[in-house]
Design goal:
The protein contains two helices and three strands, in the order H-E-E-E-H. The chain has 82 residues and is α+β, with helices and mostly antiparallel strands. It folds into two domains: 30 residues, no CATH class; 51 residues, no CATH class. The protein starts with a helix and ends with a helix.
């Protein structure tokens, strides 16, 4: 689905540029609310974790986070379980 949106955005930019005979910049619409399908935390090193978020539209976001403190294994398992 994300690839379809990107193709439509490129097509819209090309049509607008040709019609206006100027450079054109088109941006994809942004959802006002993002809903997620899946969240995963992966322990990397010390207080560093990798957050992986899969949204309903199929897009995937990844972010490295630094926790205030390193979680011991039992607390880590509970945090991952929700």
């Amino acid at each position: 689905m994300q690839q379809d949106v990107e193709q439509w955005v490129k097509l819209a930019a090309a049509v607008l540029a040709r019609t206006s005979r100027s450079a054109a910049l088109i941006t994809a619409p942004q959802a006002t609310r993002a809903r997620f399908k899946h969240v995963q935390l992966i322990s990397t090193h010390g207080p560093m974790v990798l957050l992986i978020l899969v949204l309903q539209d199929g897009s995937v976001k990844q972010e490295m986070l630094t926790l205030a403190q390193t979680l011991v294994k039992t607390r880590w398992t509970r945090a991952r379980a929700g």
